[in-house]
Amino acid sequence: MTVAFRYVLFAVLSTLVNFMTQEAVLVLVPWASLALSIVAGTATGFAAKYLLDKRWIFNDGYTGGRDEARKVGLYGLFSIVTTAVFWSFELTAWAIWQTDLAKYAGGALGLAIGYAAKYALDRRFVFRAESV
Known about the structure:
This protein is mainly alpha-helical and 132 residues long. It has 4 helices and no strands.
């Protein structure tokens, strides 16, 4: 299985984790806001994607506490930037069409764009090129 295939597969899996969490929040906590469901989905999607990327995309082992903190910090920073892309697409689609299908379609497009940019950033700055 190629790295590109795994990356796309893991992006899809973490997107599903994200959307399933959003839906679970709205079903289990009916008074929860859309914003709360999106934040919860983003958090679970982030955790899943980081763990999958670290191990299966970048073959990155443990390199010490300080280096691990640097990686998580940079990964998180780049995630914030790419999450802004995701949220803007998801919320714009919701604002225009106000349907779940539109919200998730906008979110999926935003995540796809964000993940493509994030791969390039992570490869260059987070996980050392020699470990890829």
